[in-house]
Amino acid sequence: MNTAMFRLESVSLAYRPGRFLFRNVSLEVACGEVVLLQGPSGCGKSSFLKLLNRIQEPSEGRIFFEGQPIAHIPVTQLRRRVSYLHQSPILLKASVGENLRLPFSLRASGRKKAPGEAELREQLGRYLLSDVSLEDPAENCSVGQKQRLCLIRALLLNPEVLLLDEPTSALDEESASIVEREIVRANRKTGISVLWVTHHPVKLPAAISVRRLKIASQTISEV
Amino acid sequence: MGAVDIGPLQLALCVVFVLCSGICSLALKLKLERDLMIGSVRTFAQLYLMGYVLRFVFDLSQAWPVLIIFCGMIFFAAWTIRGRIKERTVPFFRSTLVSMLITYVVVTITVTGVIVQAKPWYLPQYFIPLGGMVVGNSMNAIAVALERLFSELRNRRAEVEMMLCLGADYREATQSIMANAVRAGMIPSINAMMGVGIVFLPGMMTGQILAGSDPVLAIKYQIVVMLMLTASTALGSVVVVWLARRNCFTHAQQLKLGE
Description:
The structure holds two protein chains of two kinds. By secondary structure, chain A is an alpha/beta fold.
């Protein structure tokens, strides 16, 4: 039986008691599925994603990850399996290499070894960042380069789900197309599920089967 | 040789200083006249009250009234901190009070009982003034540290959330914020150690000299006091910020503070 990656049962989210962003949402996201979630600004798209890695809690309803209530999964482990990419790239004031290795320096990483320099350089090359050195201060990179670094960092953990909060909205065309290309590649190669919040058109290859959802009038529906 | 007594008329003359400040406030439209007046009245009332209470406690010569007064001072300090911090999303009063109580009682007993070797350790002439300095100085440090903790958590919310998203627990996600908060609280104490004896003569030393004490004895006490204050400031700030930071997160490692 193919278990859904995520299952939401009657999930509601209120930003204040009685003031709902969305109500009574029930849906499933399958393994390897690519879901585009659209809707106007402030309708709760980002908050919806944050429910899935428990940065926020739903006001009502239950969320299951691979058949297990997400509240039963150790939260630091859940967040490494369900990776989140912010709209604006966020890097620490440290070198590029330190930023890429950051997830492996955390307690939740256990004995998992950080990728070596050769692997990191190879990743930089794939994202057209060959001119960026691992020793460079990350703050010197452009926004587009930073977002590519954030995507590399997120995917280095080999997550099962990628939550994307408008990751290309602030990027130049070149960076945006590299980010989109690598997300599609990760989905095809590893079968990672992708939940992609956007209100810009996303260029995805026709071969990719995309499910489109829309948040409007406090509900989430198929487009 | 004791200190020269200050009569009621001379005491009343001090009000001239406040009147000058009030005139400045009026002239520059600072709107501080009311606060200056209330502050002056409270200074007279609170200090006179404390003077009579201390006289009573000195006569009793027992540990419990000394400890009750000390706990009351700590409670008032924790209450003052609560009033100064604007943050209302995260409860911090109880944890602040408990950590101040434990830290300051331990530090003050160590100073009076072990370093000064007052006999008994609760001798009110030593315990209350020394303990009072601990509470007063650390109160400011803790307020500064808490204010910095909450403001950095709000301003660097995105960075904290990014760390949490990578699987960091709240301690890892706020390591540098906690360090900055404690550092901000401790800097005044460290600056005071740098300037003492050159830039200013601290109140306690001045008081002892005015009371006729040998200046060398006064500086020995002052050294003990400076180091005691630095230690209590550090301990108090670390423990309070540590506990307050925990309260800023839920059990699911979610930041409670709003945008």
